[in-house]
Amino acid sequence: GAARAQAQLRLAALFEHQLGQGDAALPLYRAVLESDPAAGVAAEAIARLLLQREDYAGLLSFWDERAAGTTDGQARVTLLLRAGELAERIGDLPGARARLSAAIELVPAYLPALDALERVLYGLGDWEALVKLAEERASSAEEPSAVADQLYRAADLIERRLGDGGRALQAYARALEHVPDHGLSLDALLRLAPVHGEWALAASTLAAAAGASADPNLQVGWWYRAANIRLHQLNDRAGAIAALRAALQVSPGFLAAEELLEELLVGEQSWDEVLVAWRAKAEATEDGAARVWRLVAAALVAEQLPEADASALAEAALRESPQSA
Q1: Relative orientation angle of helices 73-89 and 56-69, to the nearest 10 degrees
Q2: Position 323 pLDDT exceeds 50
Q3: pTM for this structure?
């Protein structure tokens, strides 16, 4: 009964702690646990003694039996985790995988088991299983940044371990759906998109990243890059113009974007916009000779617009440079 079990526990503790006779204590602890499976102190002592003896096979068997026999879900998960970690430590990676997977089936978001299983799968070189694990972790994550991080890891495995660039490209795109300016995913997508002819995806992804970023320097660079892709790869002049306007809205003094936009507007014969741009340039130019030529160019553009006063611009140019009369 209970009194006998308690007496056995005291005797086992005496053998273990006072006399240093673990071999004598072990069967007494087992007898206590057999008498009452809820005697956690006896179970802990058995595990401790088996570990001291480096009887790893015996300890794994003991934890497996305990996990199978308990009705306490939290206790089962803990036992499976400890058994899985021990199996990993002694090089039994398939055994570790089975136990850790069982723990995750019980508690899918159990981070210690997920991290351990990830290590084990790396050791096994099971890249598809790692991709699946990363995708599952993404689906259970709550923060968009955590979702994007896990989807990036899945995509990186697909690209570097499985060698499937097209599949990886789409996986990076999924990460960016959650965090449009996720730097690692964006860099990877922009590296792969040209290889697979996905220029439209690259341009739209850059625009989304620029729209989501709070960093003006990144915004300007991404809008400008998107504009060049629209123009040179997709022959989308309207899309390029829109991207350049967005870049200049963030950084009005970005000269490269300003000049490219003017070239496109001239090509589209958008004279009213060209006139506004060139008059503004003339007003902002401090060099007298350069300002005169800006005014002359603006006057020529104004001639294309019935409502514009081309003569006023020409007269302004003459006033700035009487020698040109």
Answers
A1: 160
A2: yes
A3: 0.78
